[in-house]
């Protein structure tokens, strides 16, 4: 029920009545349909908005309204592009450009004529069909897709599908032309055998199509060689002992050596840690250690933030260290054997 102005005494009595209803000392409020209204419902929910002009207590404003089954929203919409009457001569108050009486010159969508229909009274355009809908509900008036015909989009889809098929067919024809030209050129050359790839060398390498990362985002499809050889034994099958090296199936890594007692000359795999202490992995580890030590000594260097700077600093450090070692070796040799290039007389031992 809409809130009306109440005096202080009436407001106090209303609060006492609500407290009594909540405590069960007074009968609960009943709506116009005879249904009991729960007294514990907050007032901001039980009070109807002012624009509904509710005179009796009710909770109808909280219930979902049922749509009218006799109202068909598809048949009740504007007849797009429909025309009605076409006049034979110009009428007073009609459009000065086309002659239709349903709009003025400012709202006319036809091409501006050199001499409008007001002066020529020729080619009078038909009047548009004007419709108004007062029976639409709140949502129907604001439905932006109301009256939309989904079948009209079928022509757009068919046009784009035909364009895509033509594009794919054109690309296939171009690829076939290039392939034919390449075959003709290879047949004319005498060194054709040197250009062919020996099929026996790629028996173990399967050509697969997969998604590769590209700079434009989204990836692109390209040919990638699968370097897995069928004759290679999997890491976890080298030693089936449960107490052997641990195999991590998620990262496919086995850090320890699964066969530590085997002859090193006959072993094909010695654990993933073997690759971390040799080759460029060892150099990268030394570069990391040097960057940490240089940062602790006050140098503004960070391997991840500025890798080129860290590498140049490490190279200059190695050069200076090598020069220092050579000078130390030279000093120790001269201290032990003396310098024959000086004029100083050497002591006889």
TrEMBL record:
Involved in pre-mRNA splicing. GO terms for cellular component: spliceosomal complex. One of its GO terms (molecular function) is pre-mRNA 3'-splice site binding. Coiled coil: none annotated. Residues 251-272 are annotated as: Disordered. Residues 136-342 form the Pre-mRNA-splicing factor SLU7 domain. The keyword 4Fe-4S does not apply. It is found in: Nucleus. One of its GO terms (biological process) is mRNA splicing, via spliceosome. This is Pre-mRNA-splicing factor SLU7. Belongs to the SLU7 family. The lineage of its organism: Eukaryota, Viridiplantae, Streptophyta, Embryophyta, Tracheophyta. Keywords: mRNA processing, mRNA splicing, Nucleus, Spliceosome. Its main location: nucleus. Associated with the spliceosome. The keyword Nucleus applies.
């Amino acid at each position: 029920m809409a809130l009306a102005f109440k005096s202080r005494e009436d407001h106090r009595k209303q609060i006492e009545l609500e407290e009594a209803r909540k405590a069960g000392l007074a009968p609960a409020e009943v709506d116009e349909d005879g249904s009991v209204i729960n007294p514990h419902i907050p007032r901001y929910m039980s009070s109807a908005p002012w624009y509904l002009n509710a005179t009796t207590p009710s909770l109808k404003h909280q219930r979902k309204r049922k749509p009218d089954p006799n109202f068909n929203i598809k048949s009740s919409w504007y007849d797009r592009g429909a025309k009605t009457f076409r006049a034979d001569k110009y009428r007073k108050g009609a459009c000065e450009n086309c002659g239709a009486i349903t709009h003025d010159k400012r709202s006319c969508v036809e091409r501006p004529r050199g001499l409008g229909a007001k002066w020529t009274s020729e080619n009078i355009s038909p009047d548009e069909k004007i419709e108004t809908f007062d029976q639409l509900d709140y949502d129907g008036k604001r439905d932006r897709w109301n009256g939309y015909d989904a079948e009209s989009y079928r022509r757009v889809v068919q046009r784009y599908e035909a364009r895509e098929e033509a594009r794919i067919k054109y690309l296939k024809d171009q690829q076939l032309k290039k392939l034919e030209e390449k075959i003709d050129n290879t047949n004319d050359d005498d060194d054709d055998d040197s250009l062919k790839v020996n099929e026996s060398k790629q028996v173990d390498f399967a050509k697969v199509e997969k998604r590769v990362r590209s700079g434009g985002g989204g990836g692109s499809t390209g040919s990638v060689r699968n370097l897995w050889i069928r004759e290679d034994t999997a890491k976890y099958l080298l030693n089936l002992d449960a107490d052997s090296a641990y195999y991590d199936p998620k990262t496919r890594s086995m850090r320890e050596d699964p066969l530590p007692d085997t002859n090193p000359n006959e072993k094909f795999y010695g654990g993933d840690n073997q690759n971390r202490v040799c080759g460029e992995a060892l150099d990268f580890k030394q570069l990391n250690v040097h960057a940490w030590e240089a940062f602790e000594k006050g140098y503004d260097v960070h391997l991840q933030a500025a890798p080129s700077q860290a590498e140049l600093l490490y190279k200059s450090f190695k050069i200076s260290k090598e020069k220092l070692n050579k000078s130390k070796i030279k000093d120790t040799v001269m201290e032990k054997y003396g310098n024959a290039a000086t004029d100083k007389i050497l002591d006889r031992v």
